[in-house]
C-alpha cells in the first residue's frame, strides 16, 4: 500500500497546484486500489514541503516504518500532510486523528489562556477558509492562528470540520501559538515557524488508530447489566466517577465506570481518549473492553472484571485472604513499577501517560494458582485511569485547569497549583511503597488538622516513617505481621519511597531509576545523602 502511494505522491518535484495533490492508483472501487493526497502547509516554503513529502514516504523512516501494515493512515508534519487509504475518502473530512507529536521548538502556553480569543477568531477564520479557493485563512491580530483544509473538501464540509475541531479547544490545552503572524500563503515562509492549530493537531506523525477491538455498548445494555446503575451494583467510587458491576445477557461480567467530570467533555474528545486507552497493552493494566456514549452524557468505560478485590482490601483491612507475605508484597511492587515504566516510557505513540490518581484502592489484584510451584500468584493491575492525561515526550510538565484527585495520595504541586507531570505518579508510588512496607494506610496516619483536606498528601505516614528512619529503627517501620528476615530489601524500599515523596518534584527519581534501584542488591543510600531535602513542609 505505502509503495503505491510513494509512486503517486510528488516527492521528487515541486508540489503542484499551490501545494495540494490527490490521486488514485488503480481503478476506483477495485480491490488493491490506493487513494492518496498530500498538502503543503501554506506558511512553509515549497522546498521544505518537498523535503517533508520525501521524508514521509521514505522506506527507511517514513510512514511505511511508522505505521507498518496499516491500510489507512493520516499523518501531519510541520511542513506537510499526507493521507492514504485503500478506501475512497476524497471529499471527506477526517477528525479522528488521535494525537500530535510536536517538534522540539514548540512553545508551551502554561497558565496563559488563549482559548476565549481563539474561539472567537476561529469562527471567522473557519468561514473565510471554507470560502477560499485554496481553503485557508490567517488571522491578522494576536493571538495569531492559521486554519487550512485539504482542497478536495467542499466548502460546507471544510467549515464543518474546522468548527468541530475549534469547539474542542479547552482553556488550558497546550496549543502552538506563534509569536509572529504566519505567512499568508506565499510559499516562502519559514519552515519551522510555529502556528496555532485547533484540536491539538500539530507537527509530527499523527496515527489514526482504529478501536475495532473494543465493543461499543449501548446505554440500554449497560443500564440493564447494572440494574439501572443501582447502589447494589456499585463497586467503588473514585476521583473520576463510579464503578459498577455489570452482568451482560451473555453472562459475562464487566466493570462499568460511569465518568463524572466537572468540565463537559465533547464526544470527539472522549473518543480520542478512548483510542489512546485502547492502545495500552500490559499485563499489569486492567484491560479496557468497551465504551458507551449516550445522548451527550459523560461517557462510560467498560473494563474486565476482577473479583479478587484491591490492594487496600488485602493490605490494610485483611479482607479477601490472608495477610500478604513480604515476597508477595515485593512482587506487587515490582508489577506496579513495570506498569508505570510502560505508561511513562513505553506506551504507544511516544506519549507519556500519567495516571494522576494512583493509590492502593486502584491497584486491583488477580489471584491465580501457581501450578509449577504451588500456592498462588498475585498479579497487581492498575485501574481507574480517569481518563488519564497524556503528555508529549519532549515536554516536562503542563498545567491543568481541573484538579481532580485524592488529597491523600497526590503531591502539593498538583493539588495546589495544577502542575501535572509524571512526577505526580512517582509521589503516589512512593506512598504505595510506604503502605506496603508498613501495612498502614496513608489516610489514617495523618497529622493534618485540616478537616477539609484529610490526610493531606499522605504527610502523616511520611512523617512517621521519616522519624523512625532517622534512627534506622526498621522494626518500628515495617509491618509486624510480615515474617521475613529480608531487612535489606525493606530498607532499600524505604529509601526509594522517601525519595519519591520529596516535596520538590525535580528531586524525585524517574520510574526507570526506581526500577534499577529495586533490582540492585543492596540499599543505595540515596535518601540519606540529601539531608536538606527530607522535610516536607505543609503550610
Structure, described:
With 539 residues, the chain is α+β, with helices and mostly antiparallel strands. The chain has three domains: 1-208, no CATH class; 215-304, Phosphorylase Kinase, domain 1 (2-Layer Sandwich); 311-533, Orthogonal Bundle (Transferase(Phosphotransferase), domain 1). The protein has 14 helices and 18 strands. The chain has helices at 2-8, 46-56, 63-66, 115-131, 155-167, 219-225, 267-278, 311-315, 326-346, 412-417, 422-438, 459-470, 487-500, 511-519; strands at 20-25, 34-40, 72-76, 80-85, 136-138, 146-148, 215-216, 234-238, 241-247, 253-259, 288-292, 300-304, 351-354, 363-369, 376-382, 389-392, 398-399, 419-420. Strands 7-11-12-10-9-8 form a six-stranded mixed β-sheet, sandwiched between helices. It has a four-stranded antiparallel β-sheet with strand order 1-2-4-3, covered by helices on one side. A two-stranded antiparallel sheet has the order 5-6. A hairpin with a 3-residue loop joins strand 3 and strand 4 (80-85). Helix 9 (326-346) runs antiparallel to helix 11 (422-438) and helix 11 (422-438) packs antiparallel against helix 13. The longest helix is centred in the middle third of the chain and has 21 residues, at 326-346. The radius of gyration is 26 Å and the shape is elongated. It holds the Pfam family Pkinase. Residues 1-89 form the Gnk2-homologous domain. Residues 1-23 are annotated as: Disordered.
Amino acid at each position: 500500500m505505502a509503495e503505491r502511494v510513494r509512486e503517486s505522491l510528488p516527492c521528487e518535484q515541486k508540489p503542484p497546484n499551490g501545494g495540494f495533490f490527490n490521486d488514485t492508483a488503480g481503478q476506483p472501487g477495485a480491490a488493491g486500489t490506493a487513494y492518496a493526497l498530500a498538502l503543503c502547509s501554506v506558511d512553509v516554503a515549497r522546498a521544505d514541503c518537498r523535503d517533508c513529502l520525501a521524508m514521509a514516504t521514505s522506506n527507511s523512516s517514513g510512514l511505511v516504518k511508522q505505521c507498518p501494515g496499516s491500510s489507512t493512515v493520516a499523518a501531519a508534519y510541520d511542513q506537510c500532510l499526507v493521507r492514504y487509504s485503500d478506501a475512497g475518502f476524497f471529499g471527506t473530512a477526517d477528525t479522528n486523528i488521535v494525537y500530535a507529536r510536536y517538534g522540539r521548538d514548540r512553545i508551551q502556553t502554561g497558565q496563559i489562556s488563549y482559548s476565549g480569543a481563539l474561539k472567537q477568531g476561529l469562527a471567522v477564520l473557519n468561514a473565510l477558509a471554507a470560502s477560499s479557493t485554496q481553503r485557508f485563512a490567517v488571522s491578522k491580530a494576536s493571538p495569531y492562528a492559521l486554519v487550512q483544509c485539504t482542497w478536495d473538501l467542499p466548502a460546507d464540509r471544510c467549515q464543518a470540520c474546522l468548527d468541530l475541531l475549534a469547539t474542542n479547544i479547552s482553556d488550558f490545552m497546550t496549543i502552538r501559538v506563534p509569536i509572529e503572524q504566519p505567512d499568508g500563503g506565499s510559499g516562502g515562509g519559514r519552515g519551522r515557524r510555529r502556528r496555532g492549530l485547533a484540536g491539538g493537531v500539530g507537527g509530527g506523525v499523527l496515527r489514526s488508530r482504529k478501536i475495532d477491538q473494543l465493543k461499543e455498548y449501548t446505554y440500554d445494555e449497560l443500564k440493564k447489566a447494572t440494574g439501572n446503575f443501582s447502589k447494589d451494583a456499585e463497586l467503588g467510587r473514585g476521583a473520576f466517577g463510579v464503578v459498577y458491576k455489570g452482568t451482560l445477557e451473555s453472562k459475562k461480567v464487566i466493570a462499568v465506570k460511569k465518568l463524572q467530570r466537572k468540565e463537559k467533555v465533547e464526544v470527539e474528545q472522549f473518543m480520542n481518549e478512548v483510542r489512546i486507552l485502547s492502545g495500552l497493552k500490559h499485563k499489569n493494566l486492567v484491560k479496557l473492553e468497551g465504551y458507551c456514549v449516550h445522548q451527550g452524557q459523560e461517557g462510560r468505560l467498560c473494563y474486565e472484571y476482577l473479583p479478587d478485590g484491591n490492594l487496600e482490601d488485602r493490605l490494610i483491612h485483611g479482607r479477601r485472604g490472608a495477610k500478604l507475605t513480604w515476597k508477595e508484597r515485593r512482587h506487587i511492587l515490582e508489577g506496579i513499577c513495570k506498569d508505570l515504566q510502560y505508561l511513562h516510557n513505553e506506551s504507544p505513540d511516544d506519549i507519556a501517560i500519567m495516571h494522576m490518581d494512583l493509590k492502593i484502592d486502584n491497584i486491583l489484584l488477580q489471584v491465580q494458582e501457581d501450578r509449577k510451584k504451588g500456592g498462588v500468584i498475585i498479579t497487581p493491575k492498575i485501574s481507574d485511569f480517569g481518563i488519564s492525561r497524556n503528555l508529549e515526550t519532549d515536554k516536562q510538565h503542563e498545567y491543568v485547569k481541573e484538579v481532580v484527585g485524592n488529597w491523600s495520595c497526590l503531591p502539593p504541586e498538583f493539588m495546589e497549583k495544577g502542575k501535572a507531570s509524571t512526577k505526580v505518579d512517582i509521589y503516589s508510588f512512593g506512598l504505595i511503597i510506604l503502605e506496603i512496607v508498613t501495612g498502614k494506610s496513608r489516610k489514617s496516619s495523618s497529622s493534618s488538622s485540616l478537616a477539609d483536606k484529610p490526610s493531606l498528601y499522605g504527610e502523616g505516614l511520611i512523617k512517621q516513617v521519616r522519624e523512625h528512619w532517622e534512627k534506622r529503627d526498621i522494626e518500628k517501620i515495617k509491618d509486624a505481621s510480615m515474617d521475613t528476615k529480608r531487612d535489606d530489601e525493606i530498607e532499600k524500599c524505604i529509601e526509594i519511597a522517601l525519595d519519591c515523596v520529596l516535596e520538590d518534584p525535580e528531586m524525585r527519581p524517574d520510574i526507570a531509576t526506581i526500577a534499577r534501584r529495586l533490582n540492585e542488591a543492596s540499599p543505595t543510600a540515596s535518601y540519606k545523602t540529601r539531608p536538606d531535602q527530607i522535610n516536607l513542609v505543609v503550610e
